[in-house]
Specification:
The complex is a heterodimer of chains A (200) and B (171). Helix content of chain A is 72%, strand content 0%. By secondary structure, chain A is an all-alpha fold. The longest helix of chain A is centred in the middle third of the chain and has 37 residues. The chains are: A mainly alpha (200), B mainly alpha (171).
Amino acid sequence: MLGSPHKKKPGPEALRFWLELFWIFFKIGALTLGGGYAMIPLIYQEVVECRQWLEKKTFFSGLVIAQAIPGANAVNIASFVGYRRGGLFGAVVAVVACVLPSFLIICALGSAFVKFASHPSVSGAFEGLRAGIIGLLVYVLGDWGRQLLGKPKGLLVFCLTLFGILVLKWHPILVIVLGGILGFLLSPLPEEDQEEEDLV
Amino acid sequence: MNPLELFLVFMKVGLFSFGGGYAVIPLIAAEVVYHHRWLTASHFADLIAISQLTPGPIMINTATFAGWQLDGVLGAFLATFAVILPGAILVLGFTHCYERFQANSLFRRLTEGFYPVVVALLAAAAVFVGESIDFSWETLVIVLISWICLAKKWLSPVWVLLGAAFLGWLL
């Protein structure tokens, strides 16, 4: 079990933790064009892979909670991670940091932003950033998707969900709910899953 | 329009925004354009263009920008805060009871059943982001380089994204 640093007494170490928490989510808020699920891989990389702040399993439980609750997924995940690692104040720090970059951009530039963003050199950088985000998505997808191989039921749910979103163009909420129900019904019964600790 | 009304409207949007992302835009349009008539439809179209260009979740950007249009920085702050608040409170509630959920076998089964859905949503996100760029050899090269740097663990994801933006600016 990971310790909770927010219980520490105030001091340089605690301060470093708060700054790090802020900085991670500030970067995430600043670098993810496209929003929504495009932000998830970066959060996952920073929080689970690079810093081991959360276990992979906990991160996925957080995703399920974030999905089931109204609001932007990325912000919900930010408050989940912040709360798990730093209590209430941690949640506030993570959410503020995550929202701040675009808030500042919008307040500073307002309507002029359209002109700024369509300037050739800026739009070139945005194009590159989007391509980088695709690279990141593909990488995390490979990592997460590997666990589905050899699990026909999981693969079936994966394919049907993707089909519903991309081909049938159903409303995302409908697809998520149906996919979740199907996945729930097909996943092994609680008695059996004791030995499948490695699934998530 | 008074600030309290602005706050309440965006809190309502935040409360009903299941699914997040683009799913929320019609909801915001219904409130801000059709019901309260705070913005015109063409203003709203601008606003969506900006929200797509700005980093971060589109729903929050839309709220920030609509608030900014209505009442400057104060409006931007109120709308952003209001749209985040309901979800944040609920997440904190759920997270607080997380240990109890984790012990619940139904919740574990739900998490496992949800796993392929999450992977599929991620794949769909890759397709949606892909649709928003003009594919050329330059962008393909950037996608490949980013992927290789991450797979080989040469660079942390943030540096990969900054590098990708820099390459995009160069090419």
